[in-house]
Amino acid sequence: MSEFESDLLQLLSERGHLHQITDAGALDALAMKEVVTGYVGFDPTAPSLHIGNLASIMLLKRLQQAGHRPIVIMGGGTAKVGDPSGRDETRTMLTDEKLAGNIASIKGSFEQILRFDDSETGALLINNDDWLNELGYIELLRDVGPHFTINRMLTFDSVKLRLDREQPLTFLEFNYMIMQAYDYLVLNREYGCRLQLGGSDQWGNIVNGIELCRRIDGKEVYGVTAPLITRADGAKMGKSVDGAVWLNEAQLPAYDFWQYWRNTDDRDVGRFLRLFTDLPLDEIARLEQLEGAAINDAKIVLANEVTAMVRGADAARSAEATAAQTFAGGGAGEDLPTLTLGEEEMSLPAVLTAIGFTRSNGEAKRKIAEGAVKLDGEATRDPGAMIALAEGAEIKISLGKKRHGLLVR
To answer: Which stretch carries the motif 'HIGH' region (predicted)?
Structure first.
């Protein structure tokens, strides 16, 4: 029996999305009474979001599924400052052109997962640069600055962590929390937005926005955070041994995206099915009870469901078929990462790095020496090996048991 009455908070709770709520009783009552507009902010610091961001996107998806309206805020303005939360160093400054390009590239991920239409619950995508860029700095300081005290700002984890580690925190970054709070004020005024959602590291920023809306306009608004998603091995969600697990195809092929989920730790399968899929809870309960080799069936379901949501059903089917051919049949499916070689010989370490299996030739040489690299199923331990192919030929290259690709000419 859920402790909540509204569909919204029941859904967030039973799926594992809830960590903190500013006023659970009031938000629960509001969500039963009317369509609630809620938002999550995403700073476009790269051309793709990664699966660490997927937990926040799912908050918006659940909001829409429960009959409410999600707003995606692209932080074209705040990204010019940089969020100090969870960072030990200052972000690289991005140009307007770079930010615009990133936003255009990221937009497709939201269109794949959320429903954008003219209905009462249709999602909106808005760039906070639309209002932040128009603000005069003195005007902002006069209107909003008095509602923030340096004493309180210094108590927030995002600030304390940087200072405790004696890492520089620039005055520019220090303004980030003021700007994000101002976003909430604008969204409440312009769109009737009464809920901000985000990861647990955003709690301080969310509380600032709630207090600003109350102090300036006397409006009651709310905040919800989701728990930081970590894997059973303690690693932060969003990273693999080979780097970030990107949502966009251009940054990570669908097969590699599918494989990341297929390789989920047994202990994480049930939790990830609840968080990142729409499968019924009783079906998830059945799948997470599978043991031994049978748990792999649940992992394939997880990989298919998440890949279909993020990349489309065709991408999921193709990735599964490629995996079946590669692992079960010993063949090479068409979705495997492919590197086209020219006429000149190429060193094996350079090949491994070029196809994306290693981050450097030095790492590649270590993997080769460990016997982790195979060419057409045969292990090679020669870091000096040179690869050359005849016209039209192909070789399957593998790193360990889970990374496979094709070399073609």
So the answer is: 44-53
